[in-house]
Amino acid sequence: MIVELAILNLNAGLYLNQYGGSLVKVTESINLGRGFTAKNRTLLAAMTNKQSNSDGTLSNEEIKWLVRRGQGGFGITTTAAANVTKEGQGWDGEMGVWSDNQIPGLTKLSTMLNQTGTISLVQLFHGGMRAPQRITGVRPISASENTEAGMDGVYTKAMSETEIISMIKSFTDAAIRCKKAGFHGVELHGAHSYLICQFLGQETNRRSDKWGGDIVGRSRFLREIIRSVRSAVGEDFLIAVRISPIIEKAGIHLEDSLELAKIICEMEIDLLHISCWDVFQSVGDGDDTSITKRFRKILPKTTPLISTGAVWDAKDAQWLTNEGADIVGVARVGIGHPDWADRLSESNYQPQRPPFSVEHLANADLSPVFIEYMKRWKNFVDV
Q1: Which of 62, 103, 121, 279 could form a disulfide with 309 if both were Cys (CB 3.0 to 4.6 A apart)?
Q2: Under a CB-based contact definition with an 8 Å cutoff, are residues 154 and 133 in contact?
Q3: In whole angstroms, how far apart are CA 215 and each of 7, 222, 260, 306, 341?
Q4: Tens digits of residue pLDDT in 66-98
Q5: What is the pTM of this model?
Q6: What is the rounded CA–CA span in Å between residue 118 and residue 40?
Q7: Which helix (H) or strand (E) holds 38?
């Protein structure tokens, strides 16, 4: 159990931490480098919403939902996961960045987001073994031959060297499209057991060539994507990387993830995003230290750390900042409360918790398709 060792002053929006009394505001701006400053330390994390068109182009409903969060004060707004190849699609209604035909919609979204004062990021994604054949029509690919529940017994094809190089180019081309469309940057999705994550895991990557082995080898795919994207987009474009600190089933363990963080933070990335699911959980094995604090201790101070998972109210956000997160990421609370970021400065802000009525979610600019999807989340929608 993590013991809270801070004094909260909600009226000031501050925490007095245990290490010498420095005051930290969630509501203050943060310099992200490369000429970009986020107006506060909040981030809307990428979330599946199933509102894109069948060809991967953005629908007006998806644009409306994201822009509403930018208007609600989020310092950084991330799109839903956007597949970098047509065959990488993970679910129905997923946005795409694999074709130039998608650029007009992306441009419309970036223009409207940027007008709100938020920093706009597109999350780049490939499902790997989690790109179902029933959707893509082709056999899934991965670091090795893998399968999991929901794949109907289908095993992935282990990617060849040629396919790996081609996939790096697909991520790079997608980043170029995002820059052309006017976004401030991209986030490489290396979490949640999708393709990049499958290369990082000991269980999902059992290769014996240079793309496997220890964490240096297993991270080569991600590192080559980072190098290629940075070379293509130049110096005036943000690159964030999102990773999962622990996924036992995939063979992703904390010590490897800490080593990975040190490796990629020596490269030209601008933000590291750890997807904790629950930021209040400790690292375990008798150690009460939070995962966020463990990462902050080993990272260079010049790399902003984003931490996401189960934050709901102002007190949660302040606590996470005190633990070492430079930026507080949220997902579910941002669905129900588009203005969550703006309202953090209010004294005793306690946003309503689920279940939400359909009317409430519609008023928060969720489309009927999105609301139907959210009904699959236990106790999120009052049905």
Answers
A1: 279
A2: yes
A3: 39, 11, 7, 22, 36
A4: 999 999 999 999 999 999 999 999 999 999 999
A5: 0.94
A6: 9
A7: strand 36-38
